[in-house]
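Dear colleague,

Following up on Tuesday's group meeting, I ran the structure prediction for the two-component complex that the binding team flagged. I've pasted the input sequences exactly as they went in, so you can double-check that nothing got truncated or mislabelled along the way. The structure tokens for the whole assembly follow below. Feel free to forward this to whoever is handling the docking comparison.

Inputs:
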Amino acid sequence: MDLLANLATGFGVAATPINLLYALVGCLLGTLIGVLPGIGPVATIAMLLPATYALPPVSALIMLAGIYYGAQYGGSTTAILVNLPGESSSVVTTIDGYQMARQGRAGPALAAAGLGSFFAGCVGTLLLAAFAGPLTEMAFAFGPAEYCALMVLGLVGAVVLASGSLLKAIAMIVLGLLLGLVGTDVNSGIARFSMDIPELADGIGFVAVAMGVFGYGEIITNLAKSGEDREVFTAKVQGLMPTREDFRQMMPAVLRGTALGSVLGVLPGGGAVLASFAAYTLEKKIKLKASEVPLGQGNIRGVASPESANNAGAQTSFIPLLTLGIPPNAVMALMVGAMTIHNIQPGPQVMTVNPELFWGLIASMWIGNLMLIVLNLPMIGIWIKLLTVPYHYLFPAIVLFCAIGVYTTNNATFDIALVAAFGLAGYVFHKLGCEPAPLLLGFVLGPMMEEYLKRALKLARGDWSVFVTRPLSAALLAVALVLMVMVLLPAVKSKREEAFVED
Amino acid sequence: MAQGSQAGGGLEDNARLTVAGDRVVSIKSEKDFASGLMFITIGGGFAWASASSYTIGSASQMGPGYFPLVLGLVLLMLGGLILFFSLVVETPDGGKIGSIAWRPLLCILGANLAFGALLGGVEGIGLPSMGLVVAIVALTVISAMADETAFHLRRVLVLSTILAAGSYGIFIALLGLQMPVWPAFLAV
């Protein structure tokens, strides 16, 4: 069978002792940094990216996969322990997870998140291996118009997920697209909007934007709160593993979350985030058993299901990246950056030109998941300890890691000044209630979207109707439209808020 | 008189918009008012710069200014809409921006800038490269000042020593990253 043969190739590449070691180190580093409050997978990967520059491509990507899973799990850890989601997809985990922690049940909550994620990761990897091929075939049928439509769909997806005002989310996307255009235009060679600063001719670095807006913006916001607001909750932790009763409740929730996450993850535009919200909403709809506490008051299903969903979604979100070369979210955008550094152009050709790398990467994702569970189950107790480090020791260290991370991407002092500017912007966005996540997605897609739009319209001789007359493109735009209408419908809107606002 | 006085709950809740009518227009949401201004300024700036400095071209033959001009105008319009709604839609808490945390803001960004300046040196003001170690100490001390209640000089110095040693170990010794470690005038 092709699938098995391919997977065998993949494991042959990925499961060498040295690569396993890289996966382990990546997972460890990812978890260590991801568990720091306020630092999510995007910042963690950005920070650790330079560490992989010197490695061969396969090892580098394997280590990055480890870092990714580690960071994602680290984000869930802080969500549960201190009510601080490390990233948008663990926002719903805070709702029941933190309640469980307050009842001294942080251990079972962390274990449920870990085990659910592992199961979902296994299913996701299999799906990825099975469907990557057929979907790649489809990718060749994609013309510039389809790519454009797909990006619009992705950006609309990002809007759907933003929690605040719809208009502001759209504006942030457009702002991101514009910022992405800064730098030399590939067609004319003109340095656009560079204000005669030579460093800006190369464009604004993604790392500087991500670190500034997310890293520094978060730290400043955190420090602005009074001491008790960010108090770490370290009341007695009783029992690290879930009980038999817990298992009985979480099993079906994990299955539901995995199924939902796998499907939604394929959609470009924050599939993992959408998945976790949808999974939580679904769990709320399921009838409570007599012995259960309602969701929102520390029900283990409220942790297990969204965590499985976001990991399954994270896994299947590699599909658009590997087959179409379109990063579906900020983390994947960083992966594209990492691949480009290693001279790999993500897209349908990776699979044919470089099959070892392609299948090796897929195998390494499963290995990353495995490392995660191996590393984290025994160490739950230690992660809880790490969070007792007072914030006044923690934040200078975070600032330092951000600064070093930014400096090392280009070895340029200018980038450090740039990150300060974006740190200021991040704080302003926070103050004005503008969510930064859509901005980041727009920033990544900006240059690509311009390029495909240009090509599509050139082929169509300037006729905009090309986007609706080509069936595939029309279908994608229709889905985008449906998503948009769904957000505007008040009924859906109230449900969207239900997942956020908890009593 | 304004017709209907039911207060709109969410901003995007178009169905419940009420128009200010002949009442004196007041800011209903400070956050949205300021966001609107911000987007108008940035969008307008991009649109103006695209139109004035770059070739626009046509849809079939786009110049470097085409896409940014379109985006700039879209952003300008979105900003206008946000501004408009901030004046007519009631928000529960008035969308207050609240006080600005100057101290954390200045300390964190200042620490970051000091780190960059000390690490690479600034030619314009004749500051030589001071290297990683000095830069880390400066960054730690300045950023720690962001939290005045917990600031304690000896503790901060200990922390900076640990961070400097750790960074040296990880980034220089282990990962082999290229950056100056000691001040330039001490190097041979």
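Confidence is low (pLDDT under 50) at residues 1-22 of chain B.

Cheers,
M.
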